[in-house]
Amino acid sequence: MSKSKVLLVSMVVVAALVVSASVSMASPIVIKFSHVVAENTPKGQMANKFKQLVDERLGGKVLVEVFPNSQLFGDKKVLEAMLLGDVQMAAPSLSKFKKYTKSLQIFDLPFLFKDMKAVEKFQKGPVGQKLLMATKKKGLIGLGYLHNGLKQLSSNEPLRVPADAKGKKFRIMSSDVLAAQFEAVGALPLKKPFSEVFTLLQTNAIDGQENTWSNIYSKKFYEVQPFITESNHGVLDYLVVTSAEFWMGLDEGIRAKLKTALDEAIAFGNKVAAEKAISDRQKIIDSGRSKVLQLTDAERQQWVNVMKPVWKKFEDQIGKDYIEAAVKSN
Ligand code: SIN
């Protein structure tokens, strides 16, 4: 090769290296992680932990930006935004996937799981693992489950037996199973975004709602709800979700590191969930703002008798075998 050709080739190589170095330095992959709860919750802590681990392990290559408190998107919009590429990760409640799959409705069936150990066992088992991919056909991939915990019923009047809820308005997440659950006791369910619940309660536009101890505490629902029935009647857990297009488009090595970081963040978030189910409940009791009511076995049985027939209504949509697998995890 002539001297001038060698010079030209070297210049081209150097230019290409400079361009590629500056591109990779200047443009890390950005993961916007949008959620609706406060930072001092299992999901808030999990998302922050994920960011911290990614900063430590993939700093410069991947940047995680966490948007809590519905700052970026509420749960209604976030999955649509994900499919459009406007957000890369979220962890909506399992009750909010109705548009994408009917199978995840299983988690809303009242009195299905005895405790969080049973929920964990089911999620880790073959059906739970299969359900992670229930939304794949619609372009969304479940990367893992995250716990929040069992739900309690809060209200402006004491709820001891189903008849106490008759005619009352309850805010619910966007789930037909939850609507059927409240209709079963003669109550009026209203599907409303999480960001509106406090104001709806404060202004008496609704009478009550169902949620976990950590959500009731962190969003101050207990300050505007004088009674909380410790019903443990259902579970509120999350699916950490991403778009298939984004996830499969990542470099394999980066994807593997992100998944490891996420698994560790979820394990951390699950620990926070277990702790908060105890500590936030106690903080609410200590505040004296809301009276926590315990049900007798006979009172609880009345709720079970009235709500459990909802299972049958959704059996075809969810799959009888899936429900049986969940029951077996108890
Ligand atoms: C959440 O925990 O993400 C919100 C739950 C709700 O909408 O009640």
Short characterization:
This protein is an alpha/beta fold. Helices cover 47% and strands 17% of the residues. The protein has one domain: D-Maltodextrin-Binding Protein, domain 2, CATH 3.40.190.
The overall number of domains is 1
Give the overall average pLDDT. 94
Question: What is the highest CATH level, the class?
Answer: Alpha Beta
Query: Kindly, what is the distance between the CA atoms of the first and last residues, rounded to a whole number of angstroms?
Result: 76 Å
The CATH architecture designation is 3-Layer(aba) Sandwich
What order do the strands of the largest sheet run in, or round the barrel if closed?
Answer: 7-6-8-5-9-11
The CATH superfamily name is Bacterial extracellular solute-binding protein, family 7
Helix content: 40-55%
Q: Are any ligands bound, and if so which?
A: succinic acid
How many helices? The count is: 13
One letter per element, helices H and strands E, the order comes to HEHEHEHHEEEHEHEHEEHHEHHH
Flag low-confidence runs: 17-24
In terms of DSSP E residues, the strand content is 15-25%
- Helix/strand structural class: alpha/beta
- Indicate the radius of gyration in whole angstroms: 23 Å
Task: Give me the secondary-structure topology.
Layout: H1 3-26, E1 29-34, H2 42-58, E2 62-67, H3 75-83, E3 89-90, H4 116-124, H5 126-131, E4 140-150, E5 152-155, E6 169-172, H6 176-184, E7 188-191, H7 197-202, E8 208-211, H8 213-218, E9 227-229, E10 235-243, H9 244-248, H10 252-287, E11 291-293, H11 297-307, H12 310-318, H13 320-328
Question: What features would you describe in this structure?
Answer:
With 330 residues, this protein is α/β, with parallel strands linked by helices. Helices cover 47% and strands 17% of the residues. Strand 1, helix 2 and strand 2 (62-67) form a beta-alpha-beta unit. Helix 2 (42-58) runs antiparallel to helix 10. The N and C termini lie far apart (76 Å). The site of succinic acid (SIN) has 9 residues, from loops.
